[in-house]
Amino acid sequence: MRLFPKEIDFFEIFDKTSLNITKAASRLVDLMEIFDDTEARAKEIHEIEQDSDMLTHDIMKKLNKTFITPIDREDLYSLASRMDDVIDLIWAVADRIAVFKLKEPMREAIKMSKDILTTAEVMHKAVKKLKEKNYAHVQEYCIEINRLENTVDRGFRDALGKLFDDVKDPILIIKWKEIYEHLEDASDRCEDVANILEAIVLKYA
Amino acid sequence: MRLFPKEIDFFEIFDKTSLNITKAASRLVDLMEIFDDTEARAKEIHEIEQDSDMLTHDIMKKLNKTFITPIDREDLYSLASRMDDVIDLIWAVADRIAVFKLKEPMREAIKMSKDILTTAEVMHKAVKKLKEKNYAHVQEYCIEINRLENTVDRGFRDALGKLFDDVKDPILIIKWKEIYEHLEDASDRCEDVANILEAIVLKYA
Amino acid sequence: MRLFPKEIDFFEIFDKTSLNITKAASRLVDLMEIFDDTEARAKEIHEIEQDSDMLTHDIMKKLNKTFITPIDREDLYSLASRMDDVIDLIWAVADRIAVFKLKEPMREAIKMSKDILTTAEVMHKAVKKLKEKNYAHVQEYCIEINRLENTVDRGFRDALGKLFDDVKDPILIIKWKEIYEHLEDASDRCEDVANILEAIVLKYA
């Protein structure tokens, strides 16, 4: 049984995109832990994001020009959009740290970033397994992504509580609140990716 | 004339979900009015949200495994997603009140919560009428939901204006602004539900 | 070769909606530059938004009642929704200026508003060319919208950086940050419109 027979190269591109997400998340963890030269580090992540943008554009063009059923197209389109969102948000986090001229990391932001890196790695594995038509493993990885999203969600609410408990400078609160929200959004979009992967497997496997 | 003949049990699940939304909204009004033990009250709403999560997961699985036309699937999928958003946002409001350790309610937040409860009750009726194939009533209730969304929208902008007029502590402004935004979002997602219900009726009735 | 033969009047409505977006954006530039009587000016933009709401409602009803393929419907539905978002956001910007009782403009907000007006004008041209089946020009305009979105995005990050560099009052930061975010969102939704227009052209031209 073949899945999307004519569009197997789509999964090549998704593989590259999810590898890019892993790279960007890994650079974000470095930035969060080392917290020096934040502008240069944000620029590096921006380059990965730009690279992914071209992959997304490529996949959208192929999707629009390839004959596939509406329902396949819709799934692949959503998959590409949500992956694009994840990398955009990872870049937004790095960018805000530079734009806000933040000088010191927050333990909670490091933890959230690490959990997002783990999520990205599992997502990359899930995409690879889908490409290899190893559907049982796709589902396992998707469950793990959902579990990780719960972890990030709890981490986000802890971070928010601690931010308002410990920090008294409202401007610093505004800055970190936005960063935490982008991290939480990135994790939510990873969960969306997992849900789409699960839907694809349920429909076609 | 039958609507979604093979998937009539979908509407059973939507009925349960919209009942859950009503329950959660009712608990939120209690929390807003009484404003004691906010953490325990938020936890109760969280349990309703968790319960709904399982219903949503169940419906998504059934949608992916059932043979239905892409367009029906798309509508039912959107319906489940938007209802899930509503209950998530109601929980988020309750959760923020606890996380932000707010000690006193805001009159405007009570009013917005009550309007959302009314919206939820009308939404529940609309779903019931759809299940019973009483399409004229579905449309009536949808118009009422749209009207209520306008009320919440005006309430939101009043609340925002009053917040910046009356409160001088920027941290308190940040906290309540987020709560008002989540309430407004919950109301917007209810309007999305009404629009999807209307679309279903227009297409199939 | 005909595009959406039976629904050619859809593009009449899109033409009117995109003209409305241009009008609203133009009024927003006036508000930002002159910055007097902000409440009355916001009300004028609200009237344009209300007018567009009726157009959107009309198109949604026609979409649901017209027999078209799911994939066409999906594209037209998205187009109408994203255009509706653009005008909602332009109105939200004007409304916040009034609700927040802001007394002085920000140079960066004027610049972002002007770029959004330019985007709206190009978008209107793109919709006109689609109506005329002049597909090559549609694509050209879409590329220009994407370029403008990059400009607004850079403008947004500059504005954010300058806001935190120059303004010391946290409440003023909260207010302008929200306005900048709505402007950036409006630009993002214009990019969505461009992407949908491009997809339509690629699929059917």
Task: Kindly describe this structure.
The first copy, chain A, has a single domain (7-204), classed as Methane Monooxygenase Hydroxylase, Chain G, domain 1. Chain A has helices spanning 8-34, 38-65, 70-99, 107-131, 135-166, 170-204. Chain A has 205 residues and is an all-alpha fold. The radius of gyration of chain A is 18 Å and the shape is globular. In chain A, helix 1 (8-34) packs parallel to helix 3 (70-99), helix 1 (8-34) packs antiparallel against helix 4 and helix 3 runs antiparallel to helix 6. Chains A and B meet through helix 3, helix 5 and helix 6 of A and helix 2, helix 3 and helix 6 of B. Chains A, B, C: It comes from Candidatus Sulfobium mesophilum. Chains A, B, C: This is Putative phosphate transport regulator. Chains A, B, C: Belongs to the UPF0111 family.
Quick overview of this protein structure:
Chains A, B, C: This is Putative phosphate transport regulator. Helices cover 86% and strands 0% of the residues of chain A.
Number of helices of chain A: 6
Order of helices and strands of chain A: HHHHHH
Helix content of chain A: over 70%
Structural class of chain A: mainly alpha
Low-confidence region ranges of chain A = none
Total domain units of chain A: 1
N→C terminal distance of chain A: 8 Å
As for the CATH topology of chain A, it is Methane Monooxygenase Hydroxylase, Chain G, domain 1
Report the radius of gyration of chain A as a whole number of Å. 18 Å
What is the CATH homology-level superfamily of chain A?
Phosphate transport system protein phou homolog 2, domain 2
Pfam families (chains A, B, C): PhoU_div
Protein name (chains A, B, C): Putative phosphate transport regulator
Organism (chains A, B, C): Candidatus Sulfobium mesophilum
InterPro entries (chains A, B, C): PhoU-like_sf, Put_Phosphate_transp_reg, UPF0111_domain
